[in-house]
Amino acid sequence: MLGRLRWAVVDGATITRRDLAHWARQPWQIVIALLFPVLTVLMFGYLLGGGMTVPGGGDYREFLLPGMFALTMVFGLETTFAAVATDAARGVTDRFRSMPMAPSAVVVGRGAADLLNSLVGLALMIGCGLAVGWSWHQGPARAAAAIGLLLLLRFALLWVGIFLGLLARGPEALVAVQILVWPLGFLSNTFAAPETMPGWLGAIAEWNPLSSTVAATRELFGNPGWGGESWVSQHALLMAVLWPTLLLVVFCPLSVRRYRRLSA
């Protein structure tokens, strides 16, 4: 049992190095992926921020940045999907399946590589936030906890992207994933209070997993945020852990099972 686990870890690390080397040979993909959230921060923070009022007072950019951090984690799902679907379409995944390696190595290796990529992107976003006047106010320990919640959300969404990529087996389905991801990202408390929305729409926004992570990170960073009287709003920290855990429990085994069932 320990021997199989050891080889699974070794095989997964090999796939991770392969994916990182692929990005090193095509750095423009990383540059574009990292520049988009930075430009979004500048657009919302400076072009639209002047007309926004934060309930209870506070700087809008300090309110905005935790939401943008979480939104970046959500948009990373598209990157994962595209990479997995492209490998499947080109036959790379089938070649991996023909090799004597652990069945979980390909999906685990992809997940590890994408999480490292997200960590770099999050560090860039934090640097961008500091440059535009954002900061945390609750000490380094709570800030580290907020970053941990953001990475937990990204790790959970990795498995959603891996599963969808294996299911589609073609990068042309990326548009369909974007139709799913963008409403998930914007129908949340990232830019507007759910209380300002129609009742049914506000309820959807409050129960959006992204909203829980955004609210929890705002609290941990000590940044201004929307209030809320619903149960899910009052327990944002708890839900910021439960939502990603639920996604992991569902999509992690589904991804491994789907990989095993791919036609050779």
From TrEMBL:
Main localization, broad class: membrane
InterPro entries: ABC2_TM (IPR013525), ABC2_TM_bact-type (IPR047817), ABC_2_transport (IPR000412), Nod_factor_ABC_transporter (IPR051784)
GO process annotations (BP): response to antibiotic
Localization: Cell membrane; Membrane
Alphabetic keyword roster: Antibiotic resistance, Cell membrane, Membrane, Transmembrane, Transmembrane helix, Transport
GO cellular component, one term: ATP-binding cassette (ABC) transporter complex
Signal peptide: none
Domain ABC transmembrane type-2, chain residue ranges per copy: 28-262
Entry membrane topology: Multi-pass membrane protein
One example GO MF annotation: ABC-type transporter activity
Transmembrane segments: 27-48, 68-89, 119-137, 143-166, 173-192, 236-256
Entry annotated with the keyword DNA damage: no
Similarity section: Belongs to the ABC-2 integral membrane protein family.
Name this polypeptide is given: Transport permease protein
The species this protein was found in: Micromonospora pisi
